[in-house]
C-alpha cells in the first residue's frame, strides 16, 4: 500500500496501516509498536524536510521462508548532504533531538538509506516476524 504523505493526518493513516499489517503478520505488541514508531518518524520527516512531497509504502515481504514487513519512505525533498552524519545520534540539521533516523535503524531489523542532494531520499526498513 502506498500512502502519500502531505499532512499530519497522512502520518496517522500510515501508522495505522503499518500497525494493522503487523498485527496480521502476528507481530507481538512490542514489534507492532516498533513498526508504528518507525513509520511515524519516517513520515514526519517527509513533512518536515521534504515539504510533504513523498510517500510511505508498506508491504509484506517473504524471504528465505520468513515473513516480514517492509516500509519504504521516499521523498522528493532536498536530500541529505551527509548521510553518515544524519545517522549519528543527536545530529540534527533542524534543531531537533536528532534521534529519528538512528532510532528507526535501531527499531527495525534491516535499514538502508539512499539520498542525493537536490533529488530526495529513500529509506527502506524491514522487520521480521
Give structural notes.
Helix 1 (8-24) packs antiparallel against helix 2 (29-50) and helix 2 (29-50) packs antiparallel against helix 4. This protein has four helices and five strands; from the N terminus they run βααββααββ. It has one domain (2-128): Heat Shock Protein 90, CATH 3.30.565. The chain has a five-stranded antiparallel beta sheet with strand order 1-2-3-5-4, with helices on one face. A hairpin with a 3-residue loop joins strand 4 (110-116) and strand 5 (120-128). The chain has 129 residues and is α+β, with helices and mostly antiparallel strands. It has helices at residues 8-24, 29-50, 83-86, 100-107, and strands at 2-5, 54-63, 66-75, 110-116, 120-128. The longest helix is centred in the first third of the chain and has 22 residues, at 29-50.
Helix content: 25-40%
Beta-strand share of residues:
25-35%
Shape: globular
Biggest sheet details = 5 strands, antiparallel
Largest sheet, spatial ordering of strands: 1-2-3-5-4
CATH topology: Heat Shock Protein 90
Overall pLDDT metric? 91
- What is the CATH class name? Alpha Beta
Radius of gyration: 14 Å
Distance between the termini: 19 Å
> What would you give as the CATH superfamily?
Histidine kinase-like ATPase, C-terminal domain
Number of helices: 4
User: What class do helices, strands and sheet pairing give?
Assistant: alpha+beta
Low-confidence regions: 94-98
- Care to count the β-strands? 5
CATH architecture: 2-Layer Sandwich
Amino acid at each position: 500500500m502506498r500512502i502519500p504523505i502531505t499532512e499530519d493526518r497522512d502520518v496517522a493513516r500510515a501508522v495505522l496501516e503499518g500497525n494493522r499489517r503487523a498485527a496480521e503478520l502476528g507481530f507481538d505488541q512490542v514489534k507492532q509498536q516498533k513498526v508504528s514508531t518507525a513509520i511515524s518518524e519516517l513520515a514526519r520527516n517527509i513533512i518536515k524536510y521534504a515539504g510533504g512531497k513523498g510517500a510511505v509504502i508498506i508491504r509484506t515481504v517473504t524471504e528465505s521462508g520468513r515473513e516480514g514487513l517492509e516500509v519504504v519512505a521516499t521523498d522528493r525533498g532536498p536530500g541529505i548532504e551527509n548521510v553518515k552524519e544524519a545517522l549519528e545520534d543527536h545530529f540534527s540539521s533542524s534543531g531537533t533531538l536528532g534521534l529519528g533516523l538512528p532510532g528507526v535503524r535501531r527499531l527495525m531489523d534491516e535499514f538502508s538509506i539512499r539520498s542525493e542532494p537536490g533529488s530526495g531520499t529513500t529509506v527502506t526498513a524491514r522487520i521480521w516476524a
